[in-house]
Structure to design on (1444 residues):
């Protein structure tokens, strides 16, 4: 169980879905960063269940308590511990999960790996685990925005099932995204996306989709070749989010349809700054940021929890049937947006602090 | 520069394209693993330049020398150092690279990050860097194949530019793949792929494509949620290979077009073994292997080096033109196959050894 | 601030003296370890302030709450979070510390390093930090005692200022040590040690001393040469405890007075077991445990907090005088005993789990 | 086998005594550090066998070859690989070691841990392993001396068996130390020390002693509490050197004989600089450097190799006798001096680079 992330900005998350709570400890955060409970709460509220009619109805306020590492609104340089208590445990609704493996969930694999699992609500494999990421991401954001004025990370739902947004990387704006409950950057698809989610929910079914994420204002020079290329570590970060199946940077798989001449990004001078005419590279060349926008595309499968009768097996090795009970989240994409952003902040913050010890002279 | 990979099976690679050589040190390899120079050389020969008419003509034998950690064909448990000397340095062919940034190469970003770069042949950003990965991957393969009888990793070129192989995950066979110089699993596309590469080379252009990789015989239980999910770390491993732009596990981006009911993999009992009817999960659920084949898809952009005049800038900040000189590798896909396999071995070996300390009781 | 310890059994502690609380998150603990709140509380109670007339009177119950990672008395393999709330904050007693550096405390160095510090009660540099270690150590103890029947770690106060216990490594017994408030293994020095502490306290002065620690029943084979030799990592662990100034394994500095012939430990066969006649090596040879008792000696300086007027400087760079206020702990040795044991458990547990991935064949 | 050291300045050493060679790879070295082969060779020559009449006669030139990471006398920021070939293998002299465990050597423990060992010359447990440390230490020294003008690390032999140097920390000078083959800072004990070593050698016996090490010019603020206190990591570094048995910082065990009032170091203002009147702290307070000289004392046992008949056991579990053959190093202290310095440079360099990412604002 590696619930640790980062080499310099080191995050350690904890918590089960139906345990006492969830949280995170951050070691290696620089001192003198402006940080308040509100900054963390703001991001948690974007991830919170029950925030709109299209997300899971679990009733949780998800209130963050900062336990250490901050004094009078400034980080101390000491570990920052943040805890969020669980409230709405409905363990009884999950009793069947103790004995039957939900298809495409982690029930079976946790049992094989650990020989034990906290079956209620998915335990550690529940999406509640991502609360620690979002809280830590808010701290990483505070660090980076203080260190690099103007840096911004914006994610949005670009596709839900067959409904595809039509928006360029440049035109995706945070205020539009946050103005609709689907968190898409194209207002014309808001209603179709909501309709698709509601239809799936009524059928007890679920939908996946695509989240896009752009980092604007990232300076050139971040990323550590060979193994810790910026795109490699962003891939790691994003693919660690539950339900992700694919990751692309810049041109992604579409690059394979282009020739080198079509794909190469010509350089030009923009005053004193080296820029590229196109951005197929997605802001990263040789694993290092080049100052252009960093462009990421993340594919999410439809959630595994269904309110439909399915074939499966029991934990004692017999064929079985299972029909989901309890709460049902037909589409996690809207709530995945702040999680994607959090992982991007965490990844970039770690690279930024690593670079401080790399480029000394 | 993080040229280190792995937490328990720790790999540290080194070397510039036109320096003395390249190599790797492996710390944390178990003792008593059968290992010979031939096992390493076999993999290096698959990666070697000049092995066929469609790859770069750089003349290198890439002969591995084991410097430590092995006695009488068995690993000692001590660090295994492997060194490969460079031979064919044609630095003069690269003089222009000292002063002009090649588009979509790492010249500019290395300069920004480090304030210096070994410009000849791309230095550390050269594909020669991957020799250390392949050598280390051969050691990881030896460990895993001794620990897990029957485990196999097979990669192949599934697409070059517009030429797409037609082969199922199950039908991709190593002997067919190694029998053709493109390393595709579908013999019917060998000639079209070769023709496409030759055409691009004659035009001074380049092509990308897709490599697929399947892990067969991997036991259930590998992978460390939360952050080090097996798919997340595989994504990290693959996206650290030069020229990669996208990664998918199992259904990948295609998952977004399916509903939960379509995508979920029903469980069934195959004797004593829990199996799944379908494998959209790609052998990984909740970040942990479930015993099914692990399915990966990796997208490579067309190589950046072209023999065509391109717009760029000089290292002293002036607009410039550049036409590639020196050797030209119009398509790296055939040689990427052993590199993809090596990264998969490295990733899985590390997870296997981590699991030894996780599941003690 | 590296509040992280361990490579496989990874501990991350947090908390300031006068903040909300202190605690720890443990990642990498094996699953299926029997673990209860009582096992943790038992060790915390041995470290607790106010437990006897010779330790600091701060009134804290130091009650541990397990927040995650344990289900029905068994570890889940997921992160174990443990939190202990602070209660007795008397910040006002420490006001002067905000402006004046206490001699031989960490006030000045924290200010230089971080540019900010939680001055109340010493903040992160307070001995309350060690609560997280002791809680984590209790978990490590549970792991190791389940994995290695018969392993025991026993520490005791061997010297306080000029009062020296007379007891051999073999004769130090846990029941005797715990039967007296000084935690010495030689009952004849209990009264002189108590008298010395009381005398120092009345003078507003303080005393240091020596803690010895023996690991009995440790199997041969633990410890990772080259850099992570068992003795090197034990030295690291012990010297990270506040107020330590010296560490010795086996013969320690006394080894320098012996010749090789006197110092070498001859081997002999004890049935099937390789044993040594003497144990100058202190149970470790070449950085690896040899199955003999592991013998450690740790030197603690007298605590820096005095109730005596001292020369110092203010945080704004002026010469100043300071007389300690607030609580006074004239000798930390009795409470250091469980901390030393905790660090030994943490160090050995990490080595044990590392060895699981090292000796596979 | 953890042959890795450091978190940011990451060193990975390799090599067996009678293998092809020994060496090191350094990842995380900043770019633009002035570095030449001569800087490395200079330190290796101080460690080299056969340099004087009182050290082991093994004939090795120990010539360092820089394989990567340096261009035109500047570091590239890429991994620096350094290799040193072995020359003088006299494996036949060690045949008996294959079957018989040398007392107080690592033969037995390596066999238990790994189930295999390179018995010739001690394999990885040979002192030749320290060559990699010294080479890496030379690089760390280059980094730190470029970053912190005036920083110096000086070690010397302070005691050999019963012969004790009389020199204060302040009076130990590098030129005097290097002017005598014992490497002591007190010229009056050079002859007695040499005589003691010669006498032991003639008897086939061996001697240990004490090395002291002072870091001058280290800025305040280095060291990472809680677990990676500067003194804790220095203890780790020094105790990882073969044959060490004890470590002390500042007052060391002597601190236990002092009261708090005697031990505390009063602060005073020296112009703008905060200084301490005394330095019992040894330059480190709360695990962080305070700008005073860092004072370390390291105890070495007498070397285990003797030319005297000793009781032992064979590797197949029978009582046996062993009389050392081959080369005999009656006292390693003179050659330990550059190794102690190298470990201090490595430890401080890592802390310096870590601090770059800690104190950003």
């Amino acid at each position: 169980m590696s619930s640790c992330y980062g080499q310099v900005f080191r995050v350690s998350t904890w918590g089960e879905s139906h345990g006492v709570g969830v949280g995170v400890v951050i070691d290696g955060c620089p001192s003198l960063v402006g940080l308040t409970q509100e900054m963390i709460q703001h991001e948690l509220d974007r991830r919170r269940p029950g925030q709109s009619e299209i997300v899971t109805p679990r009733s949780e306020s998800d209130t963050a308590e900062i336990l250490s590492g901050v004094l009078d609104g400034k980080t101390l340089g000491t570990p920052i511990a943040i805890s969020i208590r669980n409230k709405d445990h409905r363990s009884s609704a999950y009793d069947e999960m103790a004995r039957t493996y939900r298809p495409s969930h982690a029930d079976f694999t946790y049992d094989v790996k650990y020989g034990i699992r906290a079956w209620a609500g998915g335990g550690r494999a529940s999406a509640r685990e991502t609360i620690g990421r979002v809280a830590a991401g808010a701290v990483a954001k505070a660090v980076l925005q203080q260190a690099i004025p103007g840096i911004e990370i914006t994610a949005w739902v670009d596709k839900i099932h067959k409904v595809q947004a039509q928006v360029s990387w440049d035109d995706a704006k945070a205020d539009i995204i946050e103005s609709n409950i689907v968190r898409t950057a194209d207002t014309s698809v808001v209603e179709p996306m909501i309709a698709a989610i509601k239809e799936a929910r009524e059928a007890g079914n679920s939908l996946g989709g695509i989240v896009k994420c752009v980092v604007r204002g990232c300076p050139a020079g971040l990323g550590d070749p060979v193994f810790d290329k910026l795109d490699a570590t962003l891939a790691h970060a994003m693919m660690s989010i539950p339900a992700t199946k694919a990751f692309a940077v810049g041109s992604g798989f579409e690059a394979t349809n282009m020739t080198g001449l079509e794909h190469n990004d010509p350089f030009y001078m923009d005053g004193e700054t080296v820029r590229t005419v196109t951005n197929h590279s997605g802001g990263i060349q040789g694993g290092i940021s080049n100052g252009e926008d960093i462009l990421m595309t993340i594919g999410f499968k439809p959630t595994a929890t269904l309110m439909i009768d399915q074939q499966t097996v029991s934990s004692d090795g017999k064929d079985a049937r299972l029909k989901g009970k309890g709460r049902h989240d037909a589409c996690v994409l809207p709530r995945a947006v702040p999680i994607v952003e959090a992982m991007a902040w965490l990844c970039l913050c770690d690279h930024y602090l690593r670079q401080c010890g790399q480029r000394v002279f």
Summary: Chain A has a mean pLDDT of 95. The longest helix of chain A spans residues 333-358.
